[in-house]
Every structure is written in structure tokens, then in C-alpha cells.
Design goal:
With about 450 residues, this protein is α/β, with parallel strands linked by helices. About 40% of the residues lie in helices and about 15% in strands.
Length: about 450
């Protein structure tokens, strides 16, 4: 293939580095790294030719093109050979027309990108397939590490453990003890990862795993590693493809560590650079009020995000006070005329319950995005006729405890106005008839 990707400094320092090098920050300024593609080489094919190629590959079973990520391999990680790719048929997820929910909140054209319809149940699979495939290639070239490792609030650990197991590579995950759902804890245990529960929060886990990586003990798999962003950017490309290569007006994204905001921008930017789209959609980054460092900075007119101590939130996967990808997210917001908004615990619970009543099964993080969307519609920022895509980051089945506690009215400080607890009855026909009549009178 004539195409290549390489690491370069996000801040613009001179120098480029092979993507197989175990490096996570610029050796000159200690800034973040990014994956850079040779856009001039990619432009040897016209926009329509790329569109036709991607459409022909989409959801096909010819290895590795059944993957929504590797079906766009030239734009993602072109130098990884077929035999090194570790894929679980990720991507290609449903773009769901949320007609009923949209009408309830005042929108005619609302879509939900169901990224949780993936192998491990979250959008993390999109980035992990790229990272684990590159690590596998690097090991074949002589890289020596004890394991691939991550700090996680649940979904990253599940994804890394699954892809590591598929590749036959050892995995270590550091989790904040007692602060993730049972389903999220079980996934890496089942895949054979070494699971370390630390008596701290995500930021505390992240500090330790970064030190382990700096000392060469492990390979770092968090979104600080730009390989993750390369896979996750295909969400943007896929949304446009699913709209027959047209762009929406808005994209709503719940975010904690903020890598996904950068990933979406990277995808839309490549589409624009190669002449497939002429403009960007507007980006909305949605944060939980209890873990809102980007919201605080953006609302104050600042472009530097100061760390905070994140308070507990039901949206546990975005309970992050020191987001490592903040500079990347700020770049994305500036380029896409973005907005940052927050949602309270009450607002996210209300949004989840309302969405579920229309057939969705919404994780609390997706509910943060939906709650923020409703605010922007009520303010008139988003208009009824505009096309909106809200990104759903994980499967609701990972958060059964959240659902149960809501419907049993057991979430402290939250009014469960849409609670629907089971009705316990005596085992007789009349009681059942009476219950039906009471509900549907």
C-alpha cells in the first residue's frame, strides 16, 4: 500500500515516529502525540472513489473488511498486515432513528448512533482493535513488555481484555475499587486479565498506569495513546456514510477523558480534507455536572482545562476530573464551532427513563448526552428541523444496577418520576384483571 501513518507531536514539534514505538508523549515537549496520515497520498483517489470503495466493503465478510474500522484501513492504520489484525467485527453499528423520543423533546430528525452494539458493549472496541493490532505487530518486530495495561472506569478494561485475549496477549487493568458496575467488572475477569482494584478514583489509577508505562513495564492502552483515536474516528466517517455521505447538523457526545471528541473531529477533518464533505457538523460535548472540568473551563472562556476532583456520578465511565485528552478536545470544539454543556444526576436519570420508554435501553452516559440535547432544544440553540446525532457510548445492559435502583426509587437525591416497579399480586385471575384495568383505564 502507498499509504502510511506516523506519530507526530500534537503541539507541532519537529520529528516523526513509527506507530510501533511504545511512546505516548512528545520526547521534546512532553505534549500529546497524534497519528498523522499522508493526506496528499490519500488524495490519489477522488472522494467518490473512496466512497464507492467503503460502500463496497461495508459489513462484508471478506477479512478484515467486515469490520467498520478495517473497512477503512487506508484512513486508519494502513501498514498493519491482514495477518496481524485483531478484530471482533467492530463498527457498523445501527444509526437508530429516535422518532418518538425526538418528538417528545421537540425534534423531527433525531438519530442515536448505537456504538454500544459492539463486541464488548461499548465504542471502546473501535480504538482497541487498532491499538492491539499495532502492539501485536510491534511485538513481532521485537517489542518486549510484560503486558498491555489500562486504567479504566469499566468499558476500556472490558474492551482491552477481550482484544488481548483474542490476540493471546497478557492484559492488566487498574480499576477504582467498588466504583464500576458488576457487568463491567466481570468482563475482564472472564477474559483472563489481571484485574487490580485500587482504593482510588480513575485519575488515581491513571497516574499509576502512566508510571508503569513510563518505566517500560507495560504498554499503555488508554486514550492518551493516539492509536485509540484512530479507530474511534471511524464513528464520524460511518455516520456520514450511513446518511448517504451527507453530514448532520449536530453531533452530541458524552465525554469524560475527552479522547472521543478529538476522534470525531479527526474523522470529519479527513472527510473534509479529501473532498467528501464541505463543512463540519457542530459538536456538543456533554459532561456530568459532578465531573465537569471541560464545562467549567469552556464556560469561563478558558482554553486550558484545570484538573478537578470529580464527584461521584451515576455516569461512572465519565467520572474523570483530570482528562488527559483535554487539549485535543479543545481543538475539536474550536474547529467544529462547539458547545460544552452539563447534566445533573436528576437530569440524566430523567433522560434515561424517557428514552427507555420509547424503546431504547440507555446507559447513564448516553443519558447525559440526551439530557444536554434537551436543554439545547429548549433554549432554541438546536432547531426542530435540524438533523441531530446523539452518540450512545455503551450498551445499557452493562448498567442494570442503575436501572433497578431507579425503578425501585433507591437513587439518593433523585425523584424517580417515571419509575415502573413490578406489581406483586396474589396468583388469581381477578387480581391480574384488576391490575390491567388500573394501568390502562
Amino acid at each position: 500500500m502507498p499509504y502510511r501513518a506516523e506519530f507526530r507531536c500534537f503541539n507541532g514539534c519537529e520529528g516523526s515516529y513509527a506507530v510501533t514505538e511504545p511512546m505516548y508523549r512528545c520526547p521534546k515537549c512532553d505534549g500529546l502525540l497524534q497519528v498523522v496520515h499522508d493526506v496528499e497520498a490519500l488524495a490519489d483517489r477522488s472522494g467518490p472513489v473512496w466512497m464507492k470503495l467503503f460502500d463496497e466493503r461495508y459489513r462484508q465478510n471478506s477479512w478484515p473488511y467486515g469490520s467498520g474500522v478495517w473497512g477503512k484501513r487506508e484512513w486508519v492504520m494502513p501498514q498493519v498486515p491482514d495477518e496481524t489484525i485483531v478484530s471482533m467485527y467492530e463498527g457498523g453499528t445501527n444509526l437508530f432513528w429516535a422518532e418518538r423520543y425526538g418528538k417528545q423533546i421537540g425534534l423531527d430528525d433525531l438519530w442515536v448512533k448505537l456504538c454500544g452494539n459492539s463486541h464488548s458493549g461499548s465504542f471502546k472496541d473501535l480504538g482497541m482493535t487498532v491499538l492491539v493490532s499495532v502492539v501485536r505487530m510491534a511485538i513481532q518486530q521485537g517489542l518486549k513488555v510484560k503486558a498491555i495495561a489500562c486504567a479504566s472506569t469499566g468499558d476500556t478494561s472490558a474492551s482491552l481484555a477481550a482484544y488481548g485475549a483474542a490476540a493471546g496477549l497478557p492484559v492488566v487493568v487498574l480499576l477504582p475499587y467498588g466504583k464500576i458496575s458488576t457487568a463491567q467488572l466481570v468482563q475482564p475477569l472472564a477474559h483472563g486479565a489481571l484485574v487490580l482494584g485500587l482504593d482510588t478514583d480513575f485519575d488515581g489509577c491513571m497516574a499509576i498506569v502512566q508510571r508503569l508505562a513510563a518505566e517500560g513495564i507495560v504498554y499503555l492502552a488508554n486514550s492518551m495513546n493516539p492509536l485509540r483515536i484512530e479507530g474511534q474516528k471511524t464513528v464520524a466517517i460511518e455516520i456520514v456514510q450511513q446518511f448517504d455521505w451527507q453530514i448532520p447538523d449536530w453531533v452530541i457526545l458524552p465525554s469524560g477523558n475527552l479522547g472521543n471528541a478529538s476522534a470525531l473531529y479527526a474523522g470529519f477533518k479527513l472527510l473534509k480534507d479529501l473532498g467528501i464533505i464541505a463543512r463540519y457538523p457542530r459538536l456538543v460535548v456533554a459532561q456530568a455536572e459532578n465531573a465537569n472540568p471541560l464545562y467549567r473551563a469552556w464556560s469561563a472562556g478558558k482554553r486550558t482545562v484545570d484538573p478537578i476532583v470529580a464527584r461521584p456520578t451515576l455516569a461512572s465511565a465519565i467520572q474523570i476530573g483530570n482528562p488527559v485528552s483535554a487539549p485535543r478536545a479543545v481543538q475539536a470544539l474550536e474547529a467544529m464551532n462547539g458547545i460544552v454543556e452539563q447534566a445533573s444526576e436528576q437530569e440524566l436519570c430523567d433522560a434515561a427513563a424517557r428514552a427507555d420508554r420509547t424503546g431504547m435501553y440507555t446507559c447513564p452516559h448516553t443519558a447525559v448526552g440526551l439530557a444536554v440535547l434537551q436543554k439545547l432544544v429548549e433554549r432554541g440553540t438546536i432547531q426542530r428541523g435540524e438533523r441531530v446525532v446523539s452518540v450512545s457510548t455503551a450498551a445499557g445492559l452493562k448498567f442494570t444496577e442503575f436501572k433497578v435502583r431507579y425503578h425501585e426509587s433507591e437513587i439518593e437525591g433523585v425523584r424517580a418520576d417515571l419509575a415502573n416497579p413490578p406489581v406483586k399480586l396474589k396468583p388469581d385471575y381477578g387480581s391480574v384483571v384488576d391490575a390491567i384495568a388500573k394501568r390502562f383505564s
